[in-house]
Specification:
CATH superfamily: Oxidoreductase, molybdopterin-binding domain
CATH architecture: Alpha-Beta Complex
Helix content: 10-25%
Bound molecules: ligand MTE
Number of domains: 1
Shape: globular
Radius of gyration: 19 Å
Order of helices and strands: HHHHHHEEHEEHEEHEEEEHEEH
CATH class: Alpha Beta
Structural class: alpha+beta
Largest sheet: 7 strands, mixed
């Protein structure tokens, strides 16, 4: 039995993601039809958040899990960071060129106190805490990682978001001199992500600066990244240089490139398959042993954080707003 058979991966999934996507983009451009229609449909404004706020005590349960952890070695050598290549081993090899100090973040849009701020000042007075979170990648693997970071809400509040701030948009550094992957159109650079403001303000949403008790290594998004544990990993944007409070749903790299495959919400949901593969199970990369033959376990709604986050989506059709 070949490795592919063993993993039960259909041949069409073996195509390099970036090649596949670029091909789809070209085809969509040539056809001008269905993709444009789909994209238009996806630009519809999602329903507003529920009026009833999340119970903060309940929301904070789930900051830690006793599940077996991913080893530091696996968490730092099996990565997605397309700015350094589309292979899982590329970021660990190539992200060494990322200069993470000094680092400034520009904050703008619908807020009382916009400006450019150095990383130290951005985090001043906030003590990083450890959060052991599951992170489920849309590709079907998951890890359990002890992150160090501050609740994103504590940072956002410093800028005084106005009542027009309905979403928060995030942008990764886009420096081709430091990021060799930018030479390829695998994504519409710079990498961008966004959250509805109530998702950004949820106590589980972490602005991470470290992992395993040390500073974040470049391949994991140094010096500053999001970790949104109930959403597919692509929402957890790395190496953030810009944060904008906005009124309309912001552009996000994956959703805007392939709206039929990657939803804006990207909530982990075993009942909503990706068009090219099932999301019912995941390969849990934890403890010692081969990553390729890691145990498959059932995927849980909201990645197991339903008790903490389901109220954010009450009344929302999770199939339409996937
Ligand atoms: N952020 C940027 N800037 N570029 C990326 O390619 N990949 C995303 C996310 N953040 C990505 C990114 C995806 S698909 C995943 S699964 C997670 O980062 C992986 O995080 P990790 O490498 O720390 O496990």
């Amino acid at each position: 039995m070949s490795l592919r058979d063993a993993l039960r991966i259909p041949a069409r999934q073996i195509t390099d993601e970036a090649v596949y996507r670029h091909r789809r983009q070209l085809l969509a451009g040539l056809a001008g039809g269905p993709a444009a229609v789909l994209a238009g449909c996806s630009r519809a404004e999602p329903p507003p958040p529920p009026a009833r706020p999340v119970d903060p005590v309940r929301a904070r349960a789930g900051l830690v899990t006793t599940e077996e952890r991913t080893t530091y070695e696996d968490a730092t050598t099996y990565n997605n960071f397309y700015e350094f290549g589309t292979g899982k081993a590329d970021p660990a090899r190539r992200a060494k060129s990322l200069r993470t100090s000094p680092w400034t973040v520009a904050v703008g849009g619908e807020c009382a106190r916009p400006g450019r701020i150095g990383l130290e000042d951005l985090l001043k007075g906030l003590r990083p805490e450890e959060r052991v979170y599951r992170l489920r990648c849309v590709e079907g693997w998951s890890m359990v990682i002890p992150w160090l970071g501050v609740p994103l809400r504590d940072v956002l509040k410093r800028f005084g978001p106005t009542s027009k701030a309905r979403y928060v948009a995030f942008t990764t550094l886009g420096d081709a001199r430091q990021m060799p992957g930018l030479a390829w159109p695998s994504l519409d650079w710079p990498y961008r992500e966004g959250l509805r403001i109530d998702e950004a303000m949820h106590p589980l949403t972490l602005l991470a600066t470290g992992m395993y008790g040390r500073a974040l290594p470049p391949q994991n998004g140094a010096p500053l990244r999001l970790v949104v544990p109930w959403k597919y990993g692509f929402k957890s944007i790395k190496s953030i240089v810009r944060i904008d409070f906005v009124e309309r749903r912001p552009f996000t790299s994956w959703n805007d490139m392939q709206p039929d495959e990657y939803g804006f919400f990207a909530n982990v949901n075993p009942a909503v398959d990706h068009p090219r593969w099932s999301q019912k199970t995941e390969r849990r990369i934890a403890g010692a042993g081969s990553k390729l033959f890691a145990e498959r376990i059932p995927t849980r709604l909201f990645n197991g954080y339903a008790e903490q986050v389901a109220p954010l989506y009450s009344g929302m059709d999770l199939r339409r707003w996937f």
